[in-house]
């Protein structure tokens, strides 16, 4: 009897131990319960959105994009607000971006979709998700990045992760479906390939491109905040690629493809095929033009993505002033990209985002605009319209490793952080001797 009484006390004691109620939950996108239509927006969130985003963010007749540095975007669609990637530019510059991570959290996003888990895309993922409760959409590794960041920041982990897969699964070129919102068609999620330094030859034609860095942003906004520097270094430790993902949205006749990297697909037919087979094809595409293969093949990789997806309109990202030496500024890419796109059979129109003047500048696309009814030139949708036949569905190639180029550890290359800090110190030394 005494033993039973002791066991009862021990059991009650264990039950009394507080269990964190803020642990994240994660599950595959196939079983994700869609977010409801007509989301509730608090007065504080509405005020933040009105201030930062202007009008139309809550107009269901428009899809809007607001570029917030590197490849990060605020996206509104059918009255929903989500983020693509989440990082406030820090490390080399202070206050170059006209908003902070606190501003991102104040927008109260419903979801944060992540292209990959390197710090320049997911450095503030945990902070924003922890403070807002936004659903994190990404791989197992990306969810872990979010949890580690939220834990370090002490903001709690009361958010869900909708898991797209892992670094190596599904195979490159496989498209999955995520029913993210109850009142919108499923989002297509494509596992593709991160930019990589690839030896010349075997289809990787040499065409080196070395843009001249615009040093002025780094001089005018030289980073001096020790707290931000410490945070920047901590983000390096949590950084983990976790695969590379493109997201395709459909709203009526309008389609949007958004990503944050463009790798070598000259020998990846599965990815090339998948890029051309999204439902309704691609009206507007936003993706990175900065890549690790620039010293070998120039802008061949991002141009290959554009050629395969065949968007009507392209928005280049990721080349703004966030990393000295590595990132020259978007304007330094304009002539080169324009000339390369002109060589395509079906070049898209280009809305060339420039830093810093296009940060937070609204791009609004009216869903009912008649131009979206015309399929993009050269696309499978255009071919189907000319000779009616079923548009091919997403490709499902045989399983294989998600890699390519030089081997990756899954984390951001250590030399990238070293470059950012070393270049900043050099600039600081030059300023001190002026």
Description:
- This protein has 434 residues and is an alpha/beta fold.
- The chain has one domain: 4-Layer Sandwich (Metallo-beta-lactamase, Chain A), CATH 3.60.15.10.
- 30% of the residues lie in helices and 16% in strands.
- It has 14 helices and 15 strands.
- The strands form two sheets. Strands 1-7-6-5-4-3-2-15 form an eight-stranded mixed beta sheet, with helices on one face. A seven-stranded mixed beta sheet has the order 8-9-10-11-12-13-14, covered by helices on one side.
- Strand 6, helix 6 and strand 7 form a beta-alpha-beta unit.
- The longest helix has 19 residues.
- The radius of gyration is 22 Å and the shape is globular.
Q: Helices, strands, pairings?
A:
Blueprint: H1 2-16, E1 25-28, H2 43-53, E2 62-67, E3 73-77, E4 80-84, H3 101-106, E5 111-113, H4 119-122, H5 125-132, E6 135-138, H6 140-153, E7 160-163, E8 175-178, E9 187-191, H7 216-220, H8 226-238, E10 245-251, E11 254-258, H9 269-275, E12 284-288, H10 294-297, H11 300-309, E13 313-317, H12 334-341, E14 349-350, E15 362-366, H13 380-386, H14 414-432
Parallel strand pairs: 1-7, 4-5, 5-6, 6-7, 11-12, 12-13, 13-14
Antiparallel strand pairs: 2-3, 2-15, 3-4, 8-9, 9-10, 10-11
